[in-house]
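Notes from the 1:1 (GR / supervisor)

We went over the backlog. Supervisor wanted to see one worked example end to end before approving the batch request, so GR pasted a single chain during the call. The sequence is below; no edits were made to it. Supervisor asked that the structure be written out right there so they could see what the output format looks like.
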Amino acid sequence: MSEVPVRRSAIRDIADICWLLVGGLLLLAIVVVVGLKTRAGQILDEDVVRSFRVDRFHAGRIEVLLSEIRVLPMALITAAAMVIALLGRHWRVAIGLPLLVVGANQTTQLLKTEYLTRSPGGLDLPVSMPSGHTTAALSMAAVLIIAVPRVLRPLACFVGGLVAGGAGIGTVAERWHRPGDVLAAVAVVVIWSVLALVVGAHWVDRPRVRAAGFDRGVGNTALAVVGAFIGAYVLHRLGMAPMPGSKANALVYGSLAVMAVVTGLGLGAISLVADRRIFRNPPTGGKQA
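Structure output shown during the call:
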């Protein structure tokens, strides 16, 4: 006996996208206000950066890893994700992926150079928000999460968290960026992922696939968070460590936890909406996937 597909609610379809967009905008607003517009936030960000002990790094290996985040690898990974989407007959997804990568990275450069400046009366510190390296790594993770089949999305979340989390934390460990810069990059990629998901989504359809629920949302997010923490552990093995003292330890390990969790939550949220909005209906009469 064939199962009768359930018509999706238009309100739920819109809500799937809106909560992701609002979450990204809210995160960006909080980071900008706290990290750039308040003196306490600026001091905290700077104290965290100075708490990392850079002289213990093994022959600049972290810098070598970060230097691999370039335009060519980004283009190749984006092209590979587009091919994966086309093989799955998601041609609209394939169109949205380069929009995500280009839009996120260009927005980061525009915000950094034109709009996110230090407020009058603040500390005289160079502007570095959002982090370009983190945006690049996160955008590559996001396109893979969106493009791969549902069954591979947990693996994509784990690998994406590992790479993006390691890249973001690495920029702070190398004192290139502050934690706020990394969090702002997460927000930018989440916001631009909404466009890719809108372009590639099915709208008010009759899907014959199981809607992504609590299990997938929590599971994929947890894998992304674990991946980000493993990325931090890899950096630790390469020599990342705090300066001597309890305050430095608290600042370093606290910031690592915040960056890893926020990175994982961002990628997990993208994965959840992709699971719920990007699918391919099996032939009529097929079982639910």
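Supervisor's comment: The radius of gyration is 20 Å.
Batch request approved.
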